[in-house]
């Protein structure tokens, strides 16, 4: 587990692990409050879960309301309930299958009218057949059938138009950070188009132009310099290695990746590799121009005349995410109650031994680069805020009181983090959170370090139960953390918790 105050990294930490960064890194500068702090990570907002669901729910509600309205206007009381249930179920299923509830670029109710009309007609015809079989005395006539289709379609289109108009207005005010992936002039042209047309909600923050050599291997010197120089006119940084792309996604909060190429420059395998990289971080991907032709086209969309196809990120272990959170609550709640007497004794010992200020609060970086305040029992009072933020290890500091040494050796100083778990800032199991100063530096020098932030940070983790605590290799920790994320399972979390509990019998401190 990391130390509570951490000036110069130790040899066994970052210096041993990473060395100097290879190549030249160019990341779009952070905005607003982070602009004047170069050593600080540009923290992206917490990425909301379930975006497709939130996108589709208003449209689903309009279709259901349209079906119910048409039923209420045109049907008698006896057959109305049967007809309403059939229409709602049939229309929503058909529209969902057609992708009418999926996110789209600048959607239009007029463009969706043929698809809505066809499915409304199928739903009404199916409902009429069922009513004819169940209620022979209440058969729907042709006039009623056509009128029902017309009323439902008119209401659905008007309601969808309002939803789309409101959404387009919201998109202009909440553009999403985007990487344009491609080489040559097409990537620069597309980046310029997206910058000039905010109605698509895509704000380019860089151009990812991995050359074939670097795509397969990071051993390079001058590869990609031509692409870098060519993009200078557009004032956008060019990323020519996968590690630069990793860091750009984390530091800029990238939400979308737009692939474009000239003449199909990349093969399917390379597309799949980069798409998987972006999907790791929950980014949706777009294929534009030649790159879109190899993808299935379910809806005709374009970005200012560039034909495109959107590939949403897969629902990465959504059920697992819920299960992990339930495990956190189920374990942390009784654990916090059970150790409350221990918390009281520790707090009293710190107060009597070291004076006021029982709890130590420090900013750490959590999932997707989101900052939070981590809680610990104070074991050492830092000389100033700079020391607290930039000193790597204080385990042998002579200023530490006997109480502090006992708390650190037994890891009892970490117990207040159970409250961080209940708040949702952390999980019981996950990569250990680090301070912004070190996250910024390690992300620049250690391959894969930025990828640790794909999952909630934890009190303990796979690296910690393998002895990588305190003044140990950051490179090794990062490798263990990414292996844990790539092969996560709920049972693995349980095993790590058990191993952590066993290790407390043989405390080694941090």
Map the helices and strands.
Blueprint: H1 11-17, H2 51-74, H3 77-97, H4 109-134, H5 142-173, E1 176-181, H6 185-196, E2 202-208, H7 212-216, H8 225-230, E3 238-239, H9 242-252, E4 256-261, H10 268-280, E5 284-289, E6 301-303, E7 306-311, H11 318-338, H12 340-354, E8 359-365, E9 371-377, H13 385-390, H14 402-410, H15 417-423, E10 427-429, H16 436-445, E11 458-460, H17 462-465, H18 474-486, H19 490-503
Parallel strand pairs: 1-2, 1-4, 2-3, 4-5, 10-11
Antiparallel strand pairs: 5-7, 6-7, 8-9
Helix pairs in contact: 2-3, 2-5, 3-4, 4-5, 11-15, 12-14
Could you explain the architecture of this structure?
The relative contact order is 0.13. The chain has helices at residues 11-17, 51-74, 77-97, 109-134, 142-173, 185-196, 212-216, 225-230, 242-252, 268-280, 318-338, 340-354, 385-390, 402-410, 417-423, 436-445, 462-465, 474-486, 490-503; strands at residues 176-181, 202-208, 238-239, 256-261, 284-289, 301-303, 306-311, 359-365, 371-377, 427-429, 458-460. It has 510 residues and is α/β, with parallel strands linked by helices. It contains 19 helices and eleven strands. The termini are close together. The model is unreliable at 1-50, 212-233, 263-269 and 296-300 (pLDDT under 50). β6 (301-303) and β7 form a beta hairpin. It folds into three domains: 51-170, no CATH class; 175-311, 3-Layer(aba) Sandwich (Rossmann fold), CATH 3.40.50; 318-503, no CATH class. It is globular. Strands 3-2-1-4-5-7-6 form a seven-stranded mixed beta sheet.
